Amino acid sequence: MRGDREVNEGPFRILIVGGGTAGWMSAAIMARLLPKQHYSITLIESEEIGTVGVGEATIPQIQLVNAVLGIDEDDFMRATQGTFKLGIEFVGWGIADSRYIHAFGNTGRPIGRTPFQHFWLRGRTLGELATLDSYCLNAAAAYAGKFTRGTDTRSKTLGGLVHAFHFDAGSYARFLRHYAERHGVRRLEGRITHATRDGDSGDVASVALGDGSRQAADLYLDCSGFRGLLIEEALHTGYEEWTRWLPCDRALVVQSAGGADITPYTRATAKQAGWQWRIPLQNRIGNGHVYCSGALDEDEASSVLLDGLDSAPLGDPRSLRFTTGRRKAFWNRNVVALGLAAGFMEPLESTSIHLVQSAIERILKFLPNGPIRPADVEAYNAQTIFEWERVRDFIILHYHANARPEPFWQQCAAMPVPDSLTAKIDLFRANGRIERFHEELFSEAGWLQVMVGQGIAPLGYDPFADGPSDVELREFLALLRQTVSRSVATMPAHAAFLAEHCRAA
Ligand SMILES: Cc1cc2nc3c(=O)[nH]c(=O)nc-3n(C[C@H](O)[C@H](O)[C@H](O)COP(=O)(O)OP(=O)(O)OC[C@H]3O[C@@H](n4cnc5c(N)ncnc54)[C@H](O)[C@@H]3O)c2cc1C
């Protein structure tokens, strides 16, 4: 690794390889936050190769990106055909026709230190059978097709609505590109033919472009998509596959006409060997069918997708192949992989763009301005592996805890899952407890909704939930339900909110 760098050698050079969401998000955030006298940022992309062009549903943490960049949310929504997202509805994942929502934000509220689910579980023993949705502002607003900003809904009882976005992936990358270029990022157009490595250190020394020119840097961000141009093709980092737990390996993607219901949530509908997403934008609907090629051929998968649309397709389905898993190291020598170059997890919980965002935060935390130190690299990799594995567990949970009859689903139900997930399920099953470790992405409320939604029933609840009398408990639960329904009644319809605040051209 480069160890001879002096401050007077000029700015530390960051070269971003790839201009999809990962590349331009990295460029925009770094250009905004890094002092220009110490860091230079260049991005190379190839219009001829293009981007994967999917990635349209997000989670609430993305608001932090807008805040850091100083982006006005309405401008951003207009530029990207954006709609608001309050959660993900899962249809048919438990028994056939089952339906639940993993909504952002709180469900109910704790009493003292005892989490809400214990009171809800005790309530069920008293015949209080209302579902979790009735205690969750986000879920109730989503199902009612309502939306307003969280600041208008915040109450002492429940907190406010918490939202993320659906947007057009291509428009989003262009939006970030304009921002990054305005903030000093140098963009080079061209196809990288290969990378050369330093004979002594083994680091990437430069990348060569089709026109014969070369670009060298101190740190390379590999945002080149599935192929991993630097992390894999140049450094042979290796890939850890997770297909034994997440067997889907294909997606068919198609857009369909707008005008259908603009739900303020994503829908994920289980199918015979995979699942189908529906992401409503202002001008069209994004749809895709994630499936296992070992259980379904492409023609069948295409029929499933097209049969499941609720508006006319706007073209033929496009096919994408993937292998679920991660690079053995996310940061190897002087290369950090982000986005699809880092690995792949299917978009069931809309986590990939978030993993790019959190990788950028972490790069900034461990960013060198001189030699790259192994301790920084090790800490970066350990934290990123932890984060990815916990997200992986959450996605496996949806597959594993199912009650569907098809052979694909029965195999998923029977498969041994990672110990970390078994521990989570066992803990919940015993007494309804959920533990969140370190900087795990998903909250207790998220795990609760998915575990209950997928049919995992706890055998007991925390004894502290026996504190209130039966009457007090019933009153507490009724008050929460009332607060939710009254609050939702005052909210505008999602479509009306979009039309008033951020209608796209
Ligand atoms: C089916 C599917 C659905 C998804 N849905 C979601 C979702 O709903 N939510 C979510 O958060 N994420 C989702 N994702 C993931 C999301 O799409 C990606 O995380 C995101 O788009 C980032 O992609 P990327 O920038 O890493 O790669 P890409 O978009 O593939 O960009 C790669 C870039 O590298 C450039 N490049 C490659 N090779 C070269 C070369 N030789 N020379 C020069 N340039 C080169 C390309 O031109 C391009 O600019 C989904 C992914 C898939 C496959």
UniProtKB/TrEMBL annotation:
InterPro entries: FAD/NAD-bd_sf, Flavin-dep_Halogenase_NPB, Flavin_halogenase, Trp_halogen. It comes from Sphingomonas abietis. It holds the Pfam family Trp_halogenase. This is Tryptophan 7-halogenase. SUPFAM superfamilies: FAD/NAD(P)-binding domain (SSF51905). The chain crosses the membrane at residues 12-34. Coiled coil: none annotated. Keywords: Membrane, Transmembrane, Transmembrane helix.
